[in-house]
Design brief:
heterodimer, A: 212 residues, two-stranded antiparallel ribbon, B: 253 residues, alpha+beta, Fumarate Reductase Iron-sulfur Protein, Chain B, domain 2, 2 domains, five-stranded mixed beta sheet, 9 helices, 7 strands, elongated
Chain lengths: 212, 253
């Protein structure tokens, strides 16, 4: 869980940096050229296969562990009084399942339409030798619908809670605990869990409020 | 001022491992100076007088060092006080008229034997799997013959404070024994005397822990919050570190 989790944590940063180009006021040129690059560069293609694999591995391993742990607990207490633990850490499997559902929704919206259909219009830019698919327009269309914007915001809240526990937990599982660095890891993890989902959430909100 | 208190107890009653068990409600007249176990003694005396089966619960030293008094009080192993065993929990922390729910520790690796008594022999087998440490016999060695850094000795002592009560397993939503096992691995593995067999010991104890059917650690931290001896989560990181070292770097047997 920890190794795949840390890989996915890294992926979120890369994904965010790419996506923030959506906020650039150039009619989507930078983002569309970037999307073309990400779908055509052989190295990126290779890494993306690893990414799909790690997402699936993280999800399957997580659900399997949750199932095993439920069995190891056996019966539950009549009275439950947990203190000293975060809500997120007690509900990682639930949060993870919700994130998986979000990923399916998200891939269906953009990834599937970009890679496997011809639904997207082609646009040409002077700066780019070949015409590229207008993914920017698809994003703008999706985020003009309030329902989709709300679903994305909820997805980011769930992701935030998952990271709130997951970030520091990955280091603990790997045995990376030290009096000097553990407090730093915990603080960075909490800041990360707020900043990254918030920055992602900014995109649909910006599109809905200003570009509709 | 009267220190007497009337309490309603909901106690888990289960004849044996095959029985499904259920809660029974009892009224007890206790006193705020009693320990929780003394209050249960009063309940049992009442039950014996009424020719009913007394509640089976485990107890031994009654001074907070043996780790025998396992029970979950109002959803918390060893009750509501931090760093306190059931025997050291006093009734003054409850109020007159309180309803108190008492259950056995719950984990598949800790099957209920009767009422509040669970079988914690899985812990004994984990310790046995750890084996021995190499110590010179003969005359008592000089006190400072083996230099040990003070903070390391301190961490080892803190880990050695584990009394093997099983509250960590009881508190863990995963029924994991990682805090217990890590305390044992850390208390020996941190010291020069225990380092000799460290790789073999760590692997053997983890293997036994898995074999007993304990759950996997997901770093929730409920164990640390409930531990009557305040064993820290950093021991689990130490165990993970030792385990990786033993598996990836250890010498094959």
């Amino acid at each position: 869980m920890s190794l795949t989790g840390l890989f996915l944590i890294l992926f979120l940063v890369i994904h965010l940096i790419g996506n923030l180009q959506l906020l650039k006021d150039d009619g989507g040129e930078a983002f569309n050229v970037y999307a073309y690059f990400m779908t055509h560069n052989p190295l990126i293609k290779f890494v993306s296969i690893g990414l799909y694999f790690f997402i699936i591995l993280h999800a399957v391993a997580g659900l399997w562990i949750a199932y095993q742990n439920k069995a190891a607990k056996g019966s539950r207490y009549a009275v439950s009084h947990r203190h000293g633990t975060s809500w997120a850490s007690n509900n990682m499997a639930l949060l993870g399942t919700l994130i998986l559902a979000f990923i399916f929704l998200h891939l269906g919206d953009f990834w599937y339409k970009m890679k496997f259909t011809d639904q997207l219009n082609m646009v040409s830019y002077e700066s780019h030798p070949v015409a590229v698919k207008d993914l920017y327009e698809r994003v703008a269309t999706a985020f003009s619908e309030l329902g989709i914007v709300i679903a994305y915001l909820m997805g980011m809240v769930v992701l935030g809670f998952h990271l709130w526990h997951g970030f520091q937990s990955a280091f603990q599982t790997l045995g990376l605990n030290h009096v000097k660095y553990t407090p730093l890891i915990k603080t960075v993890g909490k800041i990360y869990a707020v900043i990254i989902p918030a920055a992602f959430a900014l995109i649909p909100v910006y599109f809905y409020l200003f570009l509709r | 001022m009267s220190a007497d208190m009337k309490l309603t107890l909901k106690v888990w009653r289960q004849k044996n491992n095959k029985d499904t068990g259920s809660f029974e409600t009892y009224q007890v007249n206790a006193n705020e100076h009693m320990s929780f176990l003394e209050m249960l003694d009063v309940l049992n005396e009442d039950l014996v007088r009424q020719k009913k089966e007394p509640v089976a619960f485990e107890h031994d030293c009654r001074e907070g060092i043996c780790g025998t008094c396992s029970m979950v009080i109002n959803g918390q192993p060893h009750g509501p006080m931090n760093a306190t065993t059931t025997c050291q929990l006093h009734m003054r922390h409850f109020k007159n008229g309180d309803i108190i729910v008492v259950e056995p520790f719950r984990a598949k690796a800790f099957p209920v034997i009767k009422d509040l008594v669970v079988d914690r022999s899985a812990f004994d087998r984990i310790i046995q799997a750890g084996g021995y440490i190499s110590v010179n016999t003969g005359q008592a060695p000089d006190g400072n013959a083996i230099p040990i850094e003070k903070n390391i000795a301190g961490k080892s002592f803190e880990a050695a404070a584990c009394i093997g009560c099983g509250a960590c397993v009881a508190a863990c939503p995963n029924g994991s024994a990682m805090l217990f096992t890590s305390a044992k691995v850390a208390h020996l593995g941190l010291l020069p005397q225990g380092k000799v067999e460290s790789d073999r010991r760590t692997k053997a104890m983890v293997a036994q822990m898995d074999k007993e059917g304990f759950g996997m650690c997901s770093n929730i931290g409920a164990c640390e919050a409930e531990c009557p001896k305040e064993i820290k989560l950093e021991n689990i990181a130490f165990l993970n570190r030792s385990y990786f070292k033993a598996v990836f770097g250890g010498v094959e047997e």
